[in-house]
Design brief:
Its EC number is 2.3.1.46. With about 375 residues, this protein is an alpha/beta fold. It has helices at about 125-135, 150-160, 180-195, 210-225, 230-235, 255-270, 275-285, 295-300, 320-335, 355-375; strands spanning about 10, 15, 25, 25-35, 45-50, 75, 80, 85-90, 145-150, 170, 305-315, 340-345. About 35% of the residues lie in helices and about 15% in strands. Helix 1 crosses helix 2.
Amino acid sequence: MPLIAHPQFMSFANALPLKGGGSLGSYTLAYETYGQLNAQRNNAVLVCHALNASHHVAGEYEGQAKSQGWWDNMIGPGKPLDTNRFFVIGVNNLGSCFGSTGPMHENPATGKAWGADFPVVTVEDWVNAQARLLDALGIDQLAAVMGGSLGGMQALSWTLQHPERMRHAVVIASAPNLTAENIAFNEVARRAIVTDPDFHGGHFYEKGVIPKRGLRIARMVGHITYLSDDVMNQKFGRQLRDGLDLRYSTQDIEFQIESYLRHQADKFSEYFDANTYLLITRALDYFDPAREYGGNLSQALARAVAKFLIISFTTDWRFSPARSREIVHALLDNQRDVSYAKINAPHGHDAFLLDDPRYHQLVAAYFERIAKEVQA
């Protein structure tokens, strides 16, 4: 029997203070839960999502084909994060476009969609919103917080903002901050969106248009960074579409890699919101827990008391193993309990979403350790 997912929504009347100043008034969070919370209420695991994902972490929607959660190969009955043993929670971040309050929703002050006026949100704001949801669910302490990429940054931030409310942090394919190169890629993607004639300064909703051209380019730029050169060469190489001869055209799709990127871009532009893309990539750029400590990550992580599993992938050049090791070294400087693995995988940054027996066995073994603590 497949795991059936049920979207849920919770509204909050009290304003959420924001790191950048000001606050967000009443808001709603979309979330899903899987498994059962035990009598001790100590088996909950929060799974944080990356840029274009959502609260739909696992399972599928009844009667909807191809509706599997974005991490369904990792989470579910008998899977590495076993929902027969853990109560798993997925939350859609504020500012997203999958159910939680975001730019496409109504601004109470104007009666129109927020658009570009939606307040800037940060990783820290997301974590505080998640903590409020856990309060409402009656969960005082999490068995673990887990995430990959931007989700890993949230897991790391949890250990600093609410150190006593979690026992383990599973940080996968992530980093303590973005490099200048990563920020540059994000800026190119953002410029593609804001210079689209259909963007209208972020208030395109009332114009009845969508800046799809900008979204397509943004997705193409991002998608390139998620793959490794090895994977692109293996899957596409220099193959021409349908065995065609070179046309020397500036408009036609000639190479297979071009066809693939355009296909991914077209899909993305149909379901993702342009203002959400701007907000979330900015949150990525801003995240830097060491900033308040003069760039000293060891000092920043001194607040963390959780145990850590940190995983990186050899061909991930966007969040390279060296970035994960920065976190490991900073934790060891503070004599924290940390396990680290570098997985030899050819898939680039996307490896954290794919099936890899070594990777999944490692995660399963770590959660087996957590399960024994829960049962003790």
